[in-house]
Design a protein that fits this description.
By secondary structure, the chain is α+β, with helices and mostly antiparallel strands. The protein is built from 4 helices and 2 strands. A hairpin with a 6-residue loop joins strand 1 (about 70-75) and strand 2 (about 80-90). Helix 2 (about 25-40) crosses helix 3 (about 45-50), helix 2 crosses helix 4 (about 55-60) and helix 3 packs across helix 4 (about 55-60).
């Protein structure tokens, strides 16, 4: 799994590779998926509060996860701005 883009600096490639190798990515994805199952239809910031991750950490994982899908935007209870909601995918 490649987390960085070809145009990113080498330090981003190194950090992304280390995040995968260390198991951090899988751990975050598991935490996020469990939170989405518990509170479907919530925003990344709200999911982060539920699972103990920051909004940035959650947003970095959501786009790569096949087990969740983006829904409609709504006002986020944490940020107060309109954000995507996230839902579990029926497997």
């Amino acid at each position: 799994m490649r987390l960085s883009k070809n145009t990113d600096p080498i330090t981003s490639h190194i950090a992304g590779d280390e995040a995968v190798k260390s198991g951090m990515v899988k751990s975050h994805e598991k935490q996020i998926y469990e939170a989405v199952l518990q509170i479907p239809g919530h925003t990344a910031a709200e999911i982060g509060l539920q699972c103990g991750l920051t909004q940035i950490q959650v947003n970095r994982r959501l786009g790569h996860m096949k087990s969740v899908t983006a829904g409609a935007r709504r006002e986020c209870g944490v940020q107060g701005s309109y954000c995507l909601t996230w839902w579990p995918v029926e497997l």
